[in-house]
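--- STAGE predict ---
source: upstream dedup step, 1 unique chain passed
mode: sequence only
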Amino acid sequence: MMILAHRANIFGPNRQAENSLMAVRQCLDFGWGVEIDMRRSLEGSFYISHDDQRWSIKTDADAYFSALRSFPKSTWAINVKELGYEKELLDYLIVQGVLGQVFLFDMELLEHAHGVTARKLRSFSPKVELAARASDRNESIENLLLVSEARITWLDEFDSLWITEDNISKLKSLGKRIFAISPEIHGFSLIEMERRWRQFIQWGIDGICTDYPMKLSDILVEEGASEL
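--- STAGE serialize ---
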């Protein structure tokens, strides 16, 4: 199973450190993947930030992807925070030499029609990895499967722990890679978080995105699961 450190958090939410280059480098050193937020300034420079803000040298994406290139086995989930520059984004990832180490997700939260951004991205590149999402907020697995361009599924539990073993079995039978958001990110308790992790491990999902990657790493050791 792959660990994705949500916004490069390590021991829980940390607004001061999240998405920072220092935190990202620490996650890479631990051997984890990272879920990270990407934006583009009005001047055309890419930067890393959850919130819309001015580009700065501290958030410039070049340094982040330079770090990623040093860990060729690491995978990053890039949360696409804005639409309208899809071709420029792909060109940038190609120039940075990291297209094979990332997948793009959450475009559905921004687009006017489900799957249109994935189709656009696929038309620009046959190699880019894309994730389609499902959640308990009117985002069904059936709609997820309509996005045929996405080989990865991103499962989000906002208000209820709705994912079942049958869901996972169905998606795996269709050849999908499966990543799930950890419950604590949406306000569930740490007890519920750990219980859910153990279920996800038993069901064989491919990765968990969490604010507590260090704790998840320990659980994987306990469960005898392979950490990638």
